[in-house]
Design brief:
Blueprint (H helix, E strand, L loop, with lengths): L1 H16 L3 E3 L7 H8 L13 E4 L9 E4 L4 E6 L3 E6 L2 E2 L7 E10 L7 H6 L17 E7 L2 E8 L10 E3 L3 E2 L2 H10 L5 E4 L1
Parallel strand pairs: 3-12, 6-10, 9-11
Antiparallel strand pairs: 1-2, 2-5, 3-4, 4-5, 7-8, 7-12, 8-9
């Protein structure tokens, strides 16, 4: 039994030896960010959905955001063939969106005004001011395609326990600390690929 366990540990260690990733420190946050994030329920995040610097798997130019919905991962491409990988929650099958867009605007602790089709599905949803109870969380990146608002966002969440799942109405949700990190790195006009 011991030898089998030891063998398994050696195999796992050898398979991980080829991985090249490291954790990325939390970004600096304001006093308001700290206070409001402390009011959002905390959740343990599976380590596979943590924030890591890795070798770039996308081949896209620096500054590009790539969302891989199947793996529930978002990549922000850096220079020198590196990327930061974040865990995300994505749209469930009925509401997922794929395509290429650009970040047309960015907002801190944005207000949320659900679109008409969402209100029709869920009459209980309504306008919510920015803050810890807002489903858009700490930051939002607004995605436009050919100059038109797609109504899809990359944003924080007040449900961090759902990272790694297909649960949204199409938006890409991130832990608040992760979306702050991405927001700080992303320029208006950045290309976003959702596949």
């Amino acid at each position: 039994m011991f030898l089998r366990m030891l063998g398994a540990v050696v195999v796992i260690g050898m398979s991980l030896a080829g991985c090249n990733f490291k954790g990325v420190p939390d970004p600096d946050v304001s006093a308001r960010d700290r206070e409001w994030m402390s009011l959002v329920p905390q959740a343990d995040v599976d380590p596979q959905f943590g924030r890591y610097m890795i070798d770039d798997p996308t081949g896209e130019p620096p500054g590009t955001i790539v969302v891989d919905q199947k793996s529930r991962l978002l990549y922000f491409v850096l220079p020198d063939r590196k990327a930061i990988r974040y865990g995300v929650a994505v749209g469930d099958e009925a509401y997922g969106w794929t395509g290429t867009a650009e970040v047309a605007r960015k907002a801190e602790w944005p207000n949320w005004n659900p679109p008409a089709e969402m209100k029709a599905r869920w009459p209980h949803v309504r306008f919510t001011e920015g803050g810890p109870n807002n489903p858009l969380g700490a930051r939002a990146l607004y995605l436009y395609e050919n100059g038109r608002d797609t109504l899809y966002r990359i944003h924080g969440t007040n449900e961090p326990e759902k990272i790694g799942q297909a649960v949204s109405s199409g938006c890409i949700r991130m832990r608040n600390i992760d979306v702050i990190d991405l927001y700080n790195r992303t320029k208006v006009g950045a290309r976003v690929i959702v596949k």
